[in-house]
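Ticket #4471: structure export looks truncated?
Reporter: QA, pipeline team
Priority: medium

Steps to reproduce: submit the single chain below to the structure queue and open the exported record.
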Amino acid sequence: MKRSQPSSYTQPRRAAARVLLAIACLLGGMGLAAGQASAHVVYGDDLNVNGNQNNYVSSNAGWLAGQNATTQTDSHLNRFFKFELTETSTVNFSISAINGFQYVPFGSTTIVTALDDLNPGYSLFSPIAASLSHDGAPYPGQTPFATWSPFALPHDGQPGAPTDPSSQKWGEYRSNADFTMANDLGEAPTSHFIAGDGTATGNSISGSYVLGPGIYNLVVGGNNQTNLDTVFSNVVASNGCGTAGAACDAYTAARIGRGFNIQFTAAPVPVPAAVYLFGSGLVGLAGLARRKMKASA
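Actual output as written to the record:
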């Protein structure tokens, strides 16, 4: 077991963007694809409330890409779940590819059937990423993005985003280290990595951990090297899909969803029986001492 600040001009635009974002996320979480929309970190049911959920990830490479400290990865290729523990508990979960999961991609009205070939990987973090966090939202100290990254400018096209031609960073998320990611409300907590694992050939993976009280992220992504090569080479060749053509088309196609089911349980860690026995022994000794004191009085 494993143990372990904006101008007066930009403010109304960003306020409007937040409203549109909330609507988009709501629509993305309705109908065929219950749960989070794929554009930002949007939480559905907590895993400790609903421990049997179907969902999808965009591509089969999000977790694997996040293993690379130089490029990091696009959080949109991963799916963020959260759960809360009020006491030390044993957490068990399994993530398995499923067949026939249907969803409507963010920004689209077309129903897509996810593929069933996910090679899942997962990572655990605490504290959790703020709701509506997304790659490209600037925050103090943000590491520059590569000029070809889809996130080289803020999502609303405002100037002033950090860019650096020598950087090869295209997103904010890491799957094997701490990461910081912001939302449009200025919230940018750092999530600390706890543990993670992935399978390159199988279509299911499980984890078991003893965790203390707190709120946690369980983030799911794909671990397929071939898919990662296609995604990464074509996002670079198409300048973050800013240049229309075959490379952008290939990048988009490689990001088709992969369906999965997650089963999750959490059970409080029982106090060892020896502790109870030790406690009852102390009570017994105390009683014996009182009786001796009365007898000698």
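Status: closed, not a bug. The export was complete when the record was re-opened. Leaving a note from the reviewer for reference: The radius of gyration is 24 Å.
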